[in-house]
Amino acid sequence: MNSAIVEYLLVLILTMTRLIKRLNISGLSGLKRGLPLAFINMRKTAMIDTILAAAAASLRGQYARDVVTGRQRWSGSDLKGKAKRYGHTYAVQRAKARAALAAAGGCIIAIDHGLIVSAVRIDADSYMTPRGVAVRCGTRYRVVA
How many angstroms separate the first and last alpha carbons of the chain? Predict the structure, then answer.
């Protein structure tokens, strides 16, 4: 390994150790509450990007890939014109996208006002989405970061 990378990692570890001691954090649940969610998201963001890319790569249709990556809506509400009239074929593509996402290790959740997004489970009550970390708020999830 490159010596500059090793030196950078050591400085990062020392900085995080000092921060944990200063905040008097013990255990993982305290770590989640005490540190900003951006620190926890560093590794999780790469995980969701990998899962979404794997799911999209296994799909043939561009619409299905766009649904998984978040460029198109899971509900199909953004279809217009002729596409709206032939909505059944798009629904089939959404079903294939849902199956590919589940096979890759992802899922679909409803966040803020019913918007349905691709997600990866972090723990029992939180998910990582392309929009940030979503935590349970009643029956839906709210994006906090």
Answer: 33
- pLDDT score for 33: 47
- Round to whole Å and give the CA distance between 91 and 75: 9
What is the CB neighbour count within 10 angstroms for residue 114? 8
pTM > 0.90 = no
Q: If we measure between CA atoms, which residue out of 21, 140, 116, 10 comes closest to residue 131?
A: 116
Q: Which amino acid is at 12?
A: L
pLDDT tens track for 115-134? 999 999 888 888 988 888 89
| Containing structural domain, residue 85 | 38-143
64-83 pLDDT, tens digit each: 999 999 999 999 999 999 98
Same domain, 106 and 62: yes
Q: Are residues 68 and 87 in the same domain?
A: yes
Query: Are 48 and 95 in the same domain?
Result: yes
> In one letter, which amino acid is 55?
A
